[in-house]
């Protein structure tokens, strides 16, 4: 009993607050969230200071971690978090929903929280591809799709939001043409806090037509009309309350021009080109597509290298920004 009280602040406080029975024995203490098997493993650690994880399934290790956290065994909590991240990261990615929801139930599981946050910012597709993605609760899904730094195509985010919504409404078929007005209303209610976080104005006209239009009844009429206008009239000005495109720039390179004579060049089949060949983009004359097929980056006229390799590559789309100083 002395060892139990010494090793676990939770048990020390719990045992101290329980009065003895008339026969001198302590009353029973219940841990409804800890199974007997898990508690036995914890007791072996408390009395022996050793825990063997080699034969344990990752799900069991996660349960041990939760139990250790409940008992305020911070030493083993830190060890188990490190063990899972170093040895079971693939399993945690496949079961991201479980790991995410577990990690944010306690302020002590900071390493697991950091692991989940890194996945969200650097490899979000892993989350959507996880075996239990659709088991994420609404709060967890919202925390993911509201991020401005989410490195995914917006159409993929939209399709995964629909996938999550369908899982929450198992009576609905994936084919929206089979849905009644009541079905659309049910799905709209399910996604009411998620739909405003999808950056619909970032979608291509093709994606909008093929993958959003069939679900137009999920969107507010004013939003759908504004989206439609933006595709039919590119010069239209959307309302002020739309979400801006997500930040797709990862590790941006800020490089100043050295040779201003070659700062920028452009013609029908060539460019935009920055420097002599610092960013060199060309279209094959025989190619009717809008893609730049012959591109390369070799440091010449700018102070920093854009790519580590000088191999050729292709570009599907690009954006050029000009920053103008405000003299006011």
TrEMBL record:
Signal peptide: none annotated. It comes from the Eukaryota. InterPro entries: BACK (IPR011705), BTB/POZ_dom (IPR000210), BTB_POZ_domain_cont_9 (IPR052407), SKP1/BTB/POZ_sf (IPR011333). It holds the Pfam family BACK. One of its GO terms (cellular component) is cytoplasm. Residues 1-55 form the BTB domain. PANTHER family: BTB/POZ DOMAIN-CONTAINING PROTEIN 9, BTB_POZ DOMAIN-CONTAINING PROTEIN 9. This is BTB/POZ protein. It comes from Rhizophagus clarus.
């Amino acid at each position: 009993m002395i060892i139990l009280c010494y090793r676990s602040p939770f048990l020390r406080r719990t045992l101290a607050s329980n009065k003895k029975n008339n026969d001198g024995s302590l009353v029973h203490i219940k841990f409804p969230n800890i199974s007997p098997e898990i508690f036995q493993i914890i007791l072996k650690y408390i009395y022996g200071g050793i825990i063997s994880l080699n034969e344990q399934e990752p799900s069991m290790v996660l349960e041990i971690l939760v139990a250790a956290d409940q008992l305020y065994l911070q030493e083993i909590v830190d060890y188990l978090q490190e063990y899972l991240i170093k040895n079971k990261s693939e399993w945690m990615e496949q079961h991201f929903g479980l790991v995410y929801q577990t990690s944010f139930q306690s302020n002590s599981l900071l390493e697991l929280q950091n692991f989940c946050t890194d996945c969200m910012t650097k490899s979000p597709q892993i989350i959507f591809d996880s075996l239990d993605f659709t088991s994420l609760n609404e709060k967890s899904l919202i925390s993911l799709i509201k991020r401005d730094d989410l490195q995914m195509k917006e159409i993929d985010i939209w399709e995964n939001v629909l996938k999550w919504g369908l899982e929450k409404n198992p009576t609905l078929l994936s084919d929206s043409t089979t849905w009644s007005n009541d079905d659309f209303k049910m799905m709209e209610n399910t996604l009411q806090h998620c739909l405003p976080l999808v950056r619909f104005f970032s979608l291509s006209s093709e994606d909008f037509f093929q993958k959003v239009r069939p679900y137009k009844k999920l969107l507010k009429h004013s939003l759908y009309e504004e989206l439609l206008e933006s595709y039919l009239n590119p010069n239209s000005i959307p309302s002020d309350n739309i979400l801006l495109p997500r930040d797709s720039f990862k590790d941006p390179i800020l490089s100043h021009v050295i040779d201003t004579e070659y700062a920028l060049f452009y013609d029908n089949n060539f460019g935009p080109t920055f420097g002599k060949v610092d960013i060199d983009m060309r279209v094959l004359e025989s190619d009717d597509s809008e893609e730049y097929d012959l591109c390369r980056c070799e440091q010449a006229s700018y102070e920093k290298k854009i790519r580590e390799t000088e191999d050729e590559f292709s570009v599907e789309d690009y954006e050029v920004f000009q920053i103008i100083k405000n003299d006011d």
